[in-house]
Every structure is written in C-alpha cells, then in structure tokens.
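Reopening this ticket.

The earlier resolution said the output was attached, but the attachment link was broken on my side. Pasting everything inline this time so it's all in one place.
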Amino acid sequence: MDKIELKKISNYMYEVPKHGKMRVPAVIYADSETIKDLEIDISKEKQWNALLQLINVAMLPGIQRAAIAMADIHPGYGFPIGGVGAFDFENGVVSVAGVGFDCNCGVRMLRTQLSREEVEAKKETLANQLASNIPAGLGVPGHLRLSREEIDKVLVQGAAYAVKLGYGNKDDLEYTEERGCLEGADPAAVSDRAKERQFKQVGTLGSGNHYLEVQYVEELYDRDAATHFGLREGQVMVAIHCGSRALGHQIGTDYLKVLAQATRKYGIELPDQELVCAPLSSPEAKQYISAIACGVNCAFANRHVLGHLTRGVFEKVFGIAGETIKTFYDVGHNNAKIENHVVDGRQTRLLVHRKGATRAFGPGHRELPEKYRPAGQPVLVGGTMGTASYVLRGTEKGMEETFSSTVHGAGRRLSRHEAKRRWQAKEIIDQMKQEGILVRGASFGGLVEEAPGAYKDIDRIVNIVHEAGINIKVARLRPLICIKG
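Inline output:
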C-alpha cells in the first residue's frame, strides 16, 4: 500500500492532495486524534478503511471541489460514513454507496413544554408506556396496515400522506426538511418486493442504532439561536432516530445490480466495485434518483407517524394537550439530493450525496422555516444512550466549504461484533440506571451492539466542527429514557 500524504490545513482540517487518479483532493474535518486513528488503520493495511474509501470517492467522475469527510468518519460500504460527495450534472454520477441502505435515516426532534423535574417524577411510567406503544425491533409491525395503492401514496406524498391519515398535523410539515416530501418520486422506480416489505412497517422504529430518546437540555451555548429555536435549559425534548426501514434497504439492494450493469455499460473505471454508479444523464441514474426520493418520503412519513404516537403517550402520562408538543425539526443524513451550490464563483446544480452526514444550511436560507432563518438550520446530532446529543446550527462557512453538510452522530469506534465480545446487556442497563437513564430494548443483543463505549466521544466530535466554524454549538442534551430497537 502506497504511503498516503496527509496535509494539515488547520487544527481541525486535513487534506490528502489530489494525486494519481484522484480528480479532486480529499478533505477531512478532524483533530489530531482522529487522524492518528486513520493512519493506524492505514499502517495495519486494513482493506475496509475509511481514509482509502474517501480517496476512492475523490476518483469518481464529475465530483466537485473535494471528497469530504466529517469528524465522525468511519468505514462504510464504498463511501465512508460521514462522507460527502457533490457531483455536477454534466459529467457526474450517482452511487448507491453514497446513500447507503437506510435511505433518509435521520432524526425528528420534538419540543415539549415539560421540565426535567416533571418527567423525572413519572419517568418509570413514561418509559414503560413508550416501550409499549412505540413499535420497535427487527421486523416488528406498526399500527398502520397499508395497501399497495396506499404505499405508493406514501412514496409520493411522504409525511403529508400521514397527515391525511390522521397522524400529526400540517404544522409538523413546516419544520421538516423538504416539508416532508422530496419531489421527483416515482413509485414505478421501486420494486414490488420493496413495497411488500413496507406494508406493515410505516410507523416503526426498527433495530440497530435506531432509537427514541427522551432528553433534557443540559446546557445552552448560543442563546440567541436558542431563542429562535424555542429552547431553554431543563426543557424536555424527544429525539426519534430511524429511516425508511425495509423499503429503503431493498431499494439499495435492487439498485446495486442496476448500477453495476450501468458501470460496465458506460465504461466507468472504478477503484472499488462497491462504488458502482451511473452517469447522471443516464436512464439508470434518473430511475435510481426517483427511487431515492421514494425512500426519502417513506422515512419522513415513518418518523412523522412515530412522532404522533409519541405525542399520544405524553398526553396519557402527563394529561397534557398533544398540540403543546411541537416538531422542533426533522432532518435526514443518508441521501442524495439535487441542490444548488456555489462552485468556482457560480451557482451550480449538483447531486449531493450525504452518507451519514447531515444537511446544514446557514442563516437566511430560503428553504428553512421562517422562524429559524435568522439563526440557520437546526442540526440534530445523535450521541449515545449514555452520553449526550447536540443541537448545532448551520453557518455561511459550512455552506461555502462543505456543500452545507456536517456530522450526524458520534460515529462507531468498535464493530458490533467487538461490542458483543466486551459487554453484556445487564451491565449496560444497570450502568445506565445508575446514571439516571432508563433503557428499554427490544433485544439484549441490540443493546450490547449499541453500548456507549462502542462509539466515539460525541463532545470531541462536535467540538471539531464547531471549532472549524462549519457549525455552531447551540445546545447539549442529556438522555433520561432510551427506547432501542
């Protein structure tokens, strides 16, 4: 393996200069510890290696400015998780690896008027009610039983269709990315198999790293932005992290085959076959982009229904009106979206892949809710069930440097297999309880895989993007209750 040159641009930004078959440099928002870990993986010649994956992304046709990795970078399928790649429509491509297999996995956060003290008084009851009423776990069905025709409506209309079915309200849509519906969705681009797998899964949390957390605002950093966002210290929030469930996974599986054929058909040379792709001008790419939109809309609808169910639990436990619980924001972190960004001084239409990376528009952006525009977009960053999560805000610098992208979470430090080797479910549950956090899990195996120690330090990850100036810290949130799939 050739030696890789890593050039330090600043304390929180590094670059692999363009060389060999790279079309652009590879840029990493990281500190020295993150870089050291990446270099250790290189020295051990690990084939599934996040830095090598980022360099490979920099070799793809039509990529603009740089292949970018965020502070939570770790290996993924083809693209590193925490990876961003923007492609022009003249020479660029779309790649399944740049989206992942859980299309539009993301976070919806609800804002309550309850205080930490009010929830602590009924925490056990609330945890049990949430565990009973929020469908969670591998293959567990939801409350909705949809027909083929109804699934197609979900794929086209997204969260708006859930509102038509009586889940949530139109105000929720105002505080959802794309208002809960990405244009260009064509159900014909999604296989019957993918739709069949979703008939009973809209409104389900799923398994793996998905969760519902009751949290409280522990600390505010940017009080002006917090005022725009309606946040205060001690306030209770609810974070719902999940995506498009089986439908999204099947879309990814189906289009790996389609794009593998397209790669051969159009003679695209790849450094890694996991990066199979199709030119954006091709029928294969247009079909896949339509399928992505369907997966995005399904995920928005899924989180929307879960938000409605969560409101119902809070109404029952605390005797409050559901309308007092507002959707704070909903944003995805696994997608490929058509956006306009400035490249070489001019507005350019691009397809931006965000693989485990969150959109982060800066102040004044027209796509943000009017109430939030002075501050910029809320960025929802999940940590672990034993540490913390964050609300950040987008900045002008982030829009200029990262195609309005940032971190999505802590990022895995250990594999799921290694986590199972090190910990047992009971010790995790007991430890969390000692720290004042109630954990309810659909399976012991799933809990162990998501042990807090399996993840990187969320405070350090967030500090990197904050100090780099591509985001600003607004609030730190601590968990009180965690429902795991």
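Reporter confirms the inline version is readable. The first strand starts at residue 7 and ends at 10. Residues 283-318 form the longest helix (36 residues).
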